[in-house]
Amino acid sequence: MIKSELIALLAEKNPNLYLRDVEQIVTTIFDEISDAMARGDRVELRGFGAFSTKERAARVGRNPRTGEAVQVEKKYVPYFKCGKELRERLNSK
Asked: Are 55 and 49 spatial neighbours (Cβ–Cβ below 8 Å)?
C-alpha cells in the first residue's frame, strides 16, 4: 500500500470527510512523526509500534568498485520496533 492508496481507503471508510481533509490528516501525521524523529524523539503508537532513531558511529568503509578506504560519517538511521498486538496479528492464522 502506498500513501495515496491509504488516503483513498480512509476516505472511502469516512464518507463524511472530504478527500482533501483526509489527505491533510495523513500528511500531518507523517510530518509529525518525521519531525519528532528528526528531533531525536521517540514516537510510540500503542498496539502498533515505536519509531525512533539509532546512531551509527563513524567508520572506515570500502568503495566496492575500487576497494579504496573511505571515511563514512556518523549518521542517524530510522528504527521501528513492532508492537506486541501487531506482532501477534501478523503471526495469527
From this structure: no
Contact yes or no for 53/76 (Cβ under 8 A): yes
Grid coordinates given for 7: 488516503
From residue 70, alpha-carbon distances to 59, 76, 77 in Å are: 8, 18, 19
CB 63 within 8 A of CB 43: no
pTM for this one? 0.79
pLDDT exceeds 80 at position 12? yes
Neighbours of 22 (CB within 10 A): 19
The number of helix segments (H) and strand segments (E) in the chain equals: 3, 5
Between vectors from CA 43 to CA 37 and to CA 48, what angle results, nearest 5°? 130
Task: Give the residue carrying C-alpha cell 503471526.
Answer: 91
Which residue's C-alpha cell is 513492532?
A: 82
